[in-house]
Structure formats: C-alpha cells, structure tokens
C-alpha cells in the first residue's frame, strides 16, 4: 500500500473520534465520563484480543501497560470530561494542538530537533485552535479546557513512546491496540466505581451510542491509528489530529444546530491547512555533507563491467564494486602537514593511507593485540561535523625496544598516551599512522583521543539525513581498511582482539553493535566486549531506527534476531519473509558446519546509501535498503535478496569466526559464502528456490566467464601486495568463479568429505586466522585426496579453457570422426607483470569418436581437468 493510502486510512481514526462528541452529548448518560470511558475501552480491547489471540511478552508487558495508561487510561476520562463540560466540538479543537505536544515530547524523549517548517506548521495549527476556542459560543469552562489540554498531552506522549518502541515481532496493530485498550479499561474500571458508583440505567439510545463508540470509534479507529503510527512518521500522524475537531464542528453544525463565527471558520481552515502541510515531506532532500574539508579528487572510472540487467539484477549486488577512490584523500592528511603526499609503491616513506603486506607481517610478528575500549560521543550526530573518539588498546610486544605504528584517519588528534607517558601528536601522527617508538617488551597500553569525521562516502561512520523525517541515520562500513576512520586500530585482519564500545547518542535513538544491545543510562550505551574478531567486522549503527524482533530457537539454543530500517520504510518492511530465510539459513548452516552460531545475537540492518550490497559485521549485518522493496517485485528479486541474506549469514562462520590471515585469501570469505548460500537455497528443506544453481549458472557464472577474459583478470587466490590491491579484487573472480570452482571441488572430494573437512577447519581455527593451506589440509584429511595440483590449476591460475569441436566427414557428408578439443589460450595482456595466468596454448585431446568406437584419452597439458560445475 502506498503512503497516500496509508495516510487516508489513518485519517479515518480522528474522523471517527470527531463524531464521538455529538454521540456523547446527545445519547449517553450525563456526567458519567469514567463509565463512558470504561464501556468504550474494555469491550473493544477484549474484542481485539479475542480476534488476534496474542499477548505481550518480555518488556512489552511494561510497555503495553505504559501505553495503555497514556493513550487510554488517562486520555479517555479526560477527553470525556472535556466533552461534557465544553460546547459541542470545542473540546476536540484543542486536540489540534497535538503537533506542538508531539514536537515537544519528540525533543524530550527522542532527541529530535524539530525542523523549522514542522514547527511553523504546528504554530499555525495552534493559532487556528486559538481562534476557535477564544471565540467559541457558550463560554469556556476552565475544568473542561484543562481536561482537553491534559488529554492531548497524554495522547501525544503515548504516540511518541509508541513510535520509539515500535511493534514487537508477531504482534501487529490489532494486537497493540487490543493490549492498550484492555489495559486502559482495567485502569479506569476501579476509578469509575469509586468516583461514579454503580452503572446507570441505559435506554436504547444509550446502548446504541455505546456500541458505536466501542466498535467504530474505538476498536476500528485505534487499529487504524496504531497501524498508522507504525508506518508513518510521528509528525505525519499527529498532524492528522485536526481532522477530529473539523469533523466535530461539521457534525455539530449539521446535526445539533451549533453555529460558528467567521473567525472560527478561519481557525478551522488554518487547522485543515496544517493537517495537509503535515503530510508533505520537507523540501530539502539528499544528505548533508558534514566533513569541513575540500572534496576528494574525482574517483577513477570503474573497470569494464557487463551491462547489468534491469532491476532487480539477476546477479546479487554485494561488495561489488568496492569503494573507488584515490589512494590518498585530503581527510587523511593532518591539517598541519602542508607538504604531506601520497607516496607511491617502492617509496620507503609512510605511504599515505596504504599498508603493504610486508608491513603487516612485520607488525604481526611484533605485536599481539588483546583488547580495545572505544568511547564515542555521537550526541551531536543530528548536526553532523566531527565527534570525539577515545581509544584505549592493550597489546603485547615481543621485542624490547621494538617500533611499530597504529592506524588512524582523523582531522585532529588531541592526545596520544603510551604506558602513561604523553606523546606529542605533532611528532608521532602523520598521514594515517601514529608512530609507536621504543616499545617495551610485554604489556603496553595506548590511549588516543581524536576528533573523527562523519562521512557520506560509505567509509568509516556514514551519516545520512532522511528527507522524510529530517533525522540523521548513522552506520559504519569498515571493510577493507576503514575502522581507523572511527577509532585508532591495528588495521589488519590477523591482529584480532576484543572490542568494547561505549557510545553516547541523542536521546531516543537506538545504538546497535556486535554485542547484544544494552539498556542505555543517561543516553550512554555500554556494550559488553565482543569475542576476538578482526577490526573490519566491528560495527555501530546509530539513529532513530525502526525495529522488529524475534528469536531463533532450536534444541535449547536461543539466538535473538532483529531487523532494522528507517521509520520511513517501515510500512514496506516484510520482516516475516526475512526472518523465514534467516531461520532457514541457521538450520542448514549449523547442521552442515557442525558449529553453533558463534555470536550473542543476529541483527540485520537495512541502511541508506550503502556502497555495496551487504557487509558481514559480526552479529550486526548491514544491508542496502533497496532490498526493502517499495512495490511489487518479481520472484527473482526475492531470490536475489534471499541469497544476499544467506551469503552474509554464512560469513558468520567463513570470515568472522575464522578469518583469512591476509587479503590474499579473500576468496576464503567470499567464494565460500557465495557457494554455501546458493547450496542452502538449493538443498535446504522447504526452500522456496530449489532451482538456485540454475540461476547461478545463468547469472553469476556468466559474470565470471566475462570477467576472466578481461585484461583485469587474476587468479582466485590473488597476489595482494597492499591495501590498494584488495580494492580491485571484489569482483566476479573472487565471488562467482571462486564459487564455481568450489562446486567442482565438492564434486571432486564428495559432499560428505567436503563438509567434514569444513567442520574440522572451524573447530581447529575458531576465532583465529588461516591461510589456504589450512583449509586444503583439512579437506585432504577427510577426503584422502591430494589437492595441491588442483589448487595450482584452479585457484592460483587465471583464465578460462576453450572447448572446440572437430568434425570430419567423408565424401557423402557422413561424419566419420568427431572430437572435442580443449585449449587453454593465453591470458589477455595483464597490466602488471606480476599477474601471469600460468596457462599455455597447447591443445589437449578429449573425448574422441571414430565411427562407432569411442575412447577417452586424458590430457597431458596442465589445463585439462573435467569440471563438475
């Protein structure tokens, strides 16, 4: 359903409420506001509960009670008290000031600074209210006016809290409305008996009036209202409130003979205008650039790529293409280093933002990292700019007097303290490194205080402002080398450590990280330390995100699950379908890997402006929010999304639990995640896509074939000399060709032997780092096959083979001989001499028919292997 239809359906709630004033004054017993509240709320709540048969669980018992008290228990008695003591629709008119109350509560409870346009619209609505109230006929009653204001405040607070808490998994708007109406009715019941005594005698008109209030004005209206709260912004919902007094005024004029003066009509017009204006998005669109620096140089053009098919692409979009950027950007240069330059390969000076394999190996020999404590102050994230980052890292040094460095990209470094001794940032910080000279052997403690910058490039801590609600939404993207843009770190995958994040965020925002989300205290979120993981899979996602929660339970295992997106996308979020695919992956992967999910929870966060398809942050996967489909899409689109979800879930084992030692073995992450995600779709019980290998052959494998014939081709296990090399290898070779070769390997060693080897690999290297030889060794043990030759031919050699038919016929055109010959043509000219493909052009014989006789002949050329893929 589109947004306009959602707004119109939600608007039916205040329209229905506007009719209740006439019903109350004309048909119901006088001076019985509490009894009327009870009869209106409790039967409607019990009716909805009987329909949905869902009760609150966990924290939602308390939340449902609080919302029921605000939205029903306090709101109804105050509303009816105002209706009894004020003329016709005048009490309802006060409700049109609700936007101002919501703006205030949003600032107090959610930390949302109101946009100027929103505030002006609220003021206009309030001015319209004043015109109506101050000119109202019949006079104003102080008690009635106070009750009207209090009822509006109570409802506004409940609306903001409902928006903050969202809707629990398995409970839709009907259940949420039923909980609150029931709680509110139960709260009012004893008060009604105590204050008003026994119920009054009811005539037929009163019974009909109460039935109308309970069914149309409550059960139906509140279902529509809470449905709208879940799908629209708080501002949009509250600006529908003026429809209640407009309806009341029209009903009072048409049915009760009430009059309205010209100023009152003008006030009504202003209130209606505010309602319409409140549904319009802000004029400003796009994102806000927060880094006060010159823009980086234009990125180089991407390498040639096959033209993509129409959206949704048949080939999943993941981390392809990766970030395209110059090797050094202006924000990598300290402001006082006017002569800082990006040194080229071979230069023995500090290489800008680059890191060579040799440097990483030397640092890994010298250092063993134990833990990070990272304290970030993001309280000013709504405004942007920079934020304070404080890092305390504990590490051990193997040699007395050793020298090393820690990585950091930041506009300003305020403090560097090593083992209690201050170091001058001007002396030790340059380019993207902080020098650590003269390290003592044994335990060292380093503290770095810096101002880091928000970005809008998908590197480090990305900041996006939603044009719908004008709120900022943050998320991190650290692969390959961008954790150093948020905190000081030893930025290489084999220096694993534990990470403890402490984050100060605006009030009302949500903070998600790798560890389970704690309850904030004074807007500070203190997370438990993670297991030992690499820097590039740590994560923070911060903002007023909408969330849905569930749990994966099997054989005594319980893993909390969460799905997050911006509130402006909440109406499109098909969480049930996403949870279904996720549970399918949990079942299949844990059975095949024989290793339980290794982290404390599993969140999937659909984030804006993502520069890839998804990222396998441990326990907190970020996914491009184009996968929250805004309209009807094909089954192929759902298949692609499911493969991406399963791909990232597979990474929790391949890449997060066991991580490559250096980026040479990037394929250990990506090829395996691709293969196992397709295999899960194909073989998992009750899978919706058992044909996934056909999809793979038609899309991803053809992508690999094309990429393997370009000058940019490289072996699956590529030679990665530095970080710049990594960025060009998130491609069809690493993903699609690697997965194809793994499918061949499974057929070669046998499915059971393959997964037995994988199981041994995980258990042997859990929370550690590996090389290719570690995996092949495990597979050789379980299969009994020597995989050295296979590895050299298929993982360490680039290029494709060509199959060519040779047909001979006699004078009558009868085929006398047919042969299929295999050739390994030379690779296209490589831009680097270090990338030979290792193939020759010598042909090799294959299946040959002569007459009716057939014979198989093996090839002696190194390129011949019959693939099962």
Given helix and strand content, the structural type is alpha+beta
Give the tally of β-strands.
25
Share of residues in helices: 40-55%
Termini, distance in Å?
43 Å
Average pLDDT confidence is 80
Q: Uncertain segments of ≥5 residues (pLDDT<50)?
A: 281-318, 320-351, 832-869
* Strand order across the largest sheet: 5-4-8-2-1-11-13
> Can you tell me the overall shape?
elongated
Query: Number of DSSP helices?
Result: 24
Rounded to the nearest angstrom, the radius of gyration is 33 Å
Describe the structure.
A hairpin with a 2-residue loop joins strand 15 and strand 16. The chain has a 7-stranded mixed beta sheet. The chain has a 5-stranded mixed beta sheet with strand order 15-16-17-19-18, sandwiched between helices. It is elongated, with a radius of gyration of 33 Å. The chain has 24 helices and 25 strands. It is an alpha+beta fold and 869 residues long.
Attribute tags:
5-stranded mixed beta sheet; 17% strand; alpha+beta
What's the layout of helices and strands?
Layout: H1 3-27, H2 33-52, H3 60-85, H4 90-94, H5 98-110, H6 116-134, H7 142-165, H8 173-196, H9 204-231, H10 234-238, H11 243-255, H12 262-278, H13 357-366, E1 367-377, E2 386-397, E3 402-407, E4 412-418, E5 421-423, H14 425-428, E6 429-430, E7 433-439, E8 442-453, E9 460-465, E10 472-477, E11 498-504, E12 510-513, E13 524-526, E14 540-543, E15 546-554, E16 557-565, H15 575-593, E17 602-607, E18 614-615, E19 620-624, H16 635-651, E20 659-660, H17 666-683, H18 692-698, H19 700-707, H20 723-726, H21 733-749, H22 751-765, E21 769-770, H23 772-783, H24 788-794, E22 802-809, E23 815-823, E24 848-850, E25 853-855
Parallel strand pairs: 1-11, 16-17, 17-19, 20-21
Antiparallel strand pairs: 1-2, 2-8, 3-7, 4-5, 4-8, 6-7, 9-10, 10-14, 11-13, 12-14, 15-16, 18-19, 22-23, 23-24, 24-25
Helix pairs in contact: 1-9, 1-11, 2-3, 2-8, 2-9, 3-7, 3-8, 5-6, 5-7, 6-12, 8-9, 15-16, 16-17, 17-21, 19-21, 21-22, 22-23
């Amino acid at each position: 359903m589109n947004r306009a239809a959602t707004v119109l359906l939600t608007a039916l709630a205040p329209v229905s409420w506007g009719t209740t004033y006439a019903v109350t004054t004309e048909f119901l017993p006088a001076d019985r506001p509490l009894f009327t509240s009870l009869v209106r709320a409790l039967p409607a709540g019990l009716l909805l509960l009987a329909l949905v048969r869902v009760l609150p669980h966990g924290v939602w018992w308390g939340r449902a009670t609080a919302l029921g008290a605000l939205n029903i228990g306090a709101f109804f008695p105050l509303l009816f008290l105002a209706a009894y003591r004020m003329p016709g629709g005048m009490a309802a008119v006060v409700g049109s000031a609700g936007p101002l109350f919501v703006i205030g509560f949003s600032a107090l409870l959610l930390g949302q600074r109101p946009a100027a346009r929103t505030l002006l619209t609220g003021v206009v609505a309030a001015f319209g209210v004043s015109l109506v109230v101050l000119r109202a006929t019949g006079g104003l009653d102080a008690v009635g006016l106070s009750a009207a204001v209090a009822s509006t405040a109570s409802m506004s607070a409940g609306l903001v809290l409902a928006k903050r808490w969202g809707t629990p998994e398995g409970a839709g708007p009907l259940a949420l409305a039923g909980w609150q109406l029931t709680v509110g009715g139960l709260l009012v019941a004893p008060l009604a008996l105590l204050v008003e005594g026994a119920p009054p005698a009811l005539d037929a008109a009163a019974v009909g009036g109460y039935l109308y209030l309970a069914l149309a004005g409550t059960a139906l209206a509140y279902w529509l209202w809470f449905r709208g709260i879940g799908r629209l912004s708080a501002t949009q919902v509250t600006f529908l409130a003026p429809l209640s007094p407009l309806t009341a005024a029209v009903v009072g004029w048409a049915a009760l003979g009430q009059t309205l003066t010209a100023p009152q009509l003008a006030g009504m017009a202003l209130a209606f205008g505010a309602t319409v204006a409140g549904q319009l998005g802000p004029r400003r669109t796009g994102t806000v650039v927060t880094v006060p620096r010159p823009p980086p140089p234009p990125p180089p053009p991407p390498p040639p790529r096959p033209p993509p098919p129409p959206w949704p692409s048949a080939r999943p979009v993941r981390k392809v293409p990766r970030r395209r950027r110059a090797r050094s950007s202006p924000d990598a240069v300290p402001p006082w280093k006017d002569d800082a330059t990006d040194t080229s390969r071979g230069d023995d000076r500090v290489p800008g933002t680059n890191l060579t394999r040799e440097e990483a190996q030397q640092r890994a020999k010298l250092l063993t990292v134990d833990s990070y404590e990272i304290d970030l102050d993001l309280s000013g994230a709504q405004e942007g700019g920079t934020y304070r980052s404080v890092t305390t890292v504990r590490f051990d040094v193997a040699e007395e007097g050793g020298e090393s460095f820690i990585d950091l990209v930041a506009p300003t470094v305020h403090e560097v303290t090593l083992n209690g001794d201050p170091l001058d940032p001007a002396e030790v910080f340059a380019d993207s490194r902080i020098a650590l000279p003269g390290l003592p052997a044994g335990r060292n403690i380093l503290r770095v205080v810096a101002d880091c910058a928000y970005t809008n490039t998908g590197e480090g801590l990305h900041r996006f402002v939603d044009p719908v609600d004008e709120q900022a939404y943050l998320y991190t993207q650290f692969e390959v080398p961008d954790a150093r843009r948020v905190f000081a770190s030893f930025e290489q995958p084999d220096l694993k450590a534990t990470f403890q994040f402490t984050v100060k965020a605006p009030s009302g925002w949500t903070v998600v990280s790798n560890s389970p989300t704690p309850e904030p205290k004074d807007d500070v979120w203190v997370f438990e330390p993670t297991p030992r993981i690499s820097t590039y899979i740590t994560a923070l996602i911060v903002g007023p995100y909408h969330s849905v929660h569930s749990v994966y339970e099997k054989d005594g295992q319980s893993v909390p699950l969460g799905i997050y997106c911006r509130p402006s996308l909440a109406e499109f979020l098909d969480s049930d379908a996403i949870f279904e695919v996720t549970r399918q992956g949990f079942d299949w992967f844990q059975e095949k890997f024989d290793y339980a999910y290794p982290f404390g929870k599993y969140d999937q966060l659909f984030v804006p402006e993502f520069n890839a398809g998804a990222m396998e942050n441990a326990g907190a996967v970020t996914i491009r929010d184009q996968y929250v489909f805004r309209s009807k899409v094909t089954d192929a689109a759902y298949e692609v999304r499911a493969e991406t979800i399963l791909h990232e879930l597979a990474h929790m084992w391949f890449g997060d639990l066991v991580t490559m030692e250096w980026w040479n073995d990037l394929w250990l992450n990506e090829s395996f995640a691709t293969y196992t995600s397709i295999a899960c779709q194909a073989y998992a019980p009750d899978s919706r896509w058992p044909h996934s290998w056909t999809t793979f052959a038609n899309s991803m494998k053809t992508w690999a074939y094309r990429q393997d014939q370009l000058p940019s081709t490289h072996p699956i296990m590529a030679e990665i000399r530095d970080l710049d090399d990594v960025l060009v290898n998130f491609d069809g070779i690493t993903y699609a060709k690697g997965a194809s070769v793994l499918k061949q390997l499974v057929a070669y060693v046998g499915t059971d032997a393959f997964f037995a080897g994988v199981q041994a690999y995980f258990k042997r290297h859990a929370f550690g780092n590996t090389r290719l030889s570690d995996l092949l060794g495990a597979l050789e043990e379980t299969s009994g096959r020597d995989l050295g030759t296979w590895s050299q031919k298929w993982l360490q050699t680039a290029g494709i083979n060509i199959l060519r038919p040779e047909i001979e016929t006699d004078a009558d055109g009868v085929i006398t001989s047919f042969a299929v010959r295999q050739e390994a043509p030379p690779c296209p000219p490589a831009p680097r001499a270090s990338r030979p493909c290792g193939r020759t052009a010598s042909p090799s014989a294959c299946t040959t028919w002569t007459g009716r006789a057939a014979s198989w002949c093996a090839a002696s050329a190194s390129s011949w292997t019959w693939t099962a893929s």
